[in-house]
């Protein structure tokens, strides 16, 4: 399962099809294994091939948290430093437009693992009934790999927040990440499936405290993810997010529009063969004796191996000549005069070592 419609590392403005892909992943049932179910939280893992990174899907319902509060917690960078105990640093690189930005995020990992960091493009869409967030890893020229961190890759991370029947909210979460380094895929899959429900419980607790925390800040109404007029006017360029060291995308083969002359193969004329084509059948230990074979041979006379060989060659020569005559008739050529039969000549071989005919 891929990362929405983005190519790996691609930076571009998200469109409706990207958010639709996120919703389809959450709604799909085939190809998922339920691995956790407790306290209204369900965790599924993708049924992927052995040794491959799996996508994790989480669905949870909260009775005491509004969709707006949950959506604000996922967005607010200042509040994240309060509830996210793994965060080491977070920086805003800038906005592509009012619904897409790029940022840097660093997180701690338990020893002996090295800490990880990400450069992420985040995209969001609020339709009223649904609030969605997507992020995936991109390159940015101002955030090269840093010493002491392993640059991890988010292939797809997405959240969907909806109103729940009655009071409360519904949360859908999808994640597929590659932490890089020397971690085997099976370990990454296991840890991801275990950490996903912990993240959901942290979000739940943080969302319950968010309204009170936000009201005590200096800017309780500053929410640029809700109010586009509050988004800074500065825009970053997509060109700043193109990795110069990345391999170029494979080019599609161009169709050959040149005029190619089609050559129709001409039928080959049948070649005549004779017994001489077999080469010399004598050896260095033989004495060559030339002898004529009469066509009116005595049928009662015992026929040896060489007689049978010569006879088969005569039949082969006749068949070739008949085929050649048929080709001449098809080509409209007059039939050639019947050639005068010539006696075959062959070499009789005597073995000096055995003193008898072969």
UniProtKB/TrEMBL annotation:
Phosphoprotein as UniProt keyword: yes
Biased composition regions of type Basic and acidic residues, renumbered to the chain: 260-276
InterPro entries attached to this UniProt entry: STARD10_START, START-like_dom_sf, START_lipid-bd_dom, START_lipid_transfer
UniProt protein name: START domain-containing protein 10
Residues covered by the START domain: 20-212
Location of region: Disordered: 240-281, 317-358
GO CC terms, sorted: cytosol; membrane; motile cilium
Subcellular location as annotated: Cell projection, Cilium, Flagellum; Cytoplasm; Membrane
Bias kind Basic residues: ranges: 341-351
GO MF annotation terms: lipid binding
UniProt-listed Pfam families: START
Keywords: Acetylation, Cell projection, Cilium, Cytoplasm, Flagellum, Lipid transport, Lipid-binding, Membrane, Phosphoprotein, Transport
Record GO biological process: lipid transport
